[in-house]
Amino acid sequence: MKRFLFFILLLPLVAWSGQDNSHYGGRSAGMGHASVSLFDVWSTHHNQAGLGWLKTPSAGIFIQNRNLLKEFNYMGFAYAHPLKTGTIGASFTNFGSNLYGESKAGISYALKFSEFISGGIAINYHNTRIAYEYGSHSAMTAELGMQAYLTDNFMLAAHLFNPTRSKLNEYNDERIPTIIRLGLSYAFSDKVLTVLEAQKDLLHSPTFKAGIEYNPNDMLFLRAGVGTSPSLASFGVGLKMNQMKVDIAASYHNTLGFWHELSFQYHLKGKKTK
Questions:
Q1: Radius of gyration over alpha carbons of the chain, in Å?
Q2: Average pLDDT over residues 245-269
Q3: Neighbouring residues of 172: CB distance < 8 A, sequence distance ≥ 6
Q4: Is 26 helix (H, G, I), strand (E, B) or coil?
């Protein structure tokens, strides 16, 4: 009972971070969670347009911990598979414990309209569950994304999450947030990539994020990032070993404390389809 009451007291923090398309993957976590202009298997969640640039099938898993509490574990997987026309993807995430939990399952599709522009869409199923008489609630959401190279090293990106303002619960007209993100990435060289991002939840003040990635050699990636609302600072390290990539990140939020994340990506061998 004490544990349940303790968790209820923490629900405002959970509600702040839950069912809001929270970002995952150690790479973006180490870059201030600025992800709208990145592309890898985690584009199934961050910006589906990024799937359009992938050349081979990719799979990934991640685990994230918030505030060093096992009740705040956040984990999931993603898979992307290029086709002759477009790329399909699937993802699943789960957050919380048997007292309070959230899950999201999604399917996505991306298509390159040219060598410079890619667009993507996703359909998701969300479920929120609370122990005892509170029960569970579910809803569907959609996502739309676009990425465009203005030059070989400069990209603009946009993403819209939940344009229909899907309702999660009739009580108090509880809705899943609608979030708009705009961003850019600029590669100063083959070794240095910078990202900037602005995010606006329709019901909250805008947030801004920035990150940098330094790739001193073929194996090692060093990352750092900052953000606002809440203020955060992050850093991360990535290791690439043949077809496997491991990314580790840590960030500190002034209201939510420490977050730690570990993710793995595996690029399957096979004939390139695009």
A1: 18
A2: 91
A3: none
A4: helix
Name the CA dihedral angle for 18, 61, 227, 232, rounded to a multiple of 10 degrees: 80
For the chain, helix, strand, coil in percent to 5 are: 15, 55, 30
Higher-confidence position of 66 and 246: 246
Measured CA angle at 18 (ends 17, 19), to 5 deg: 130
Tokens, residue 75 = 């984990």
* CA atoms of 199 and 206, how far apart (whole Å): 6
Residue 3 pLDDT greater than 50, yes or no: no
Cross-strand partners of 250: 235, 260
Backbone conformation region of residue 242, classed left if phi is above 0, alpha if psi is from -120 to 50, else beta: left
User: pLDDT tens across 89-145, in order?
Assistant: 999 999 988 788 999 999 999 999 999 999 999 999 999 988 876 778 899 999 999
**Gap between the Cα atoms of 48 and 96, Å rounded:** 25
76-92 per-residue burial string, b: 16 or more CB within 10 A, e: under 16: bbbbbbbeeebbebbbb
Strand partners, 146: 119, 158
Which phi and psi (to 5°) does residue 68 adopt?
60, 30
- Alpha-carbon distance of 142 to 124, in angstroms, equals 6
Alpha-carbon separation of residue 273 from 58, 83, 84, 149, 244 (angstroms): 13, 6, 6, 21, 20
Question: Is the Cβ–Cβ distance between 126 and 22 less than 8 Å?
Answer: no
Tell me which amino acid residue 112 is: K
Residue 27 CA to residue 169 CA, distance in Å, equals 33
Q: How many C-beta atoms surround the C-beta of residue 96 within 10 A?
A: 19
Is the preceding peptide bond at 230 cis, omega within 30 degrees of 0?
yes
> How far, in Å, CA of 62 to CA of 35, rounded?
15
Which of 140, 185, 141 is CA-nearest to residue 50?
185
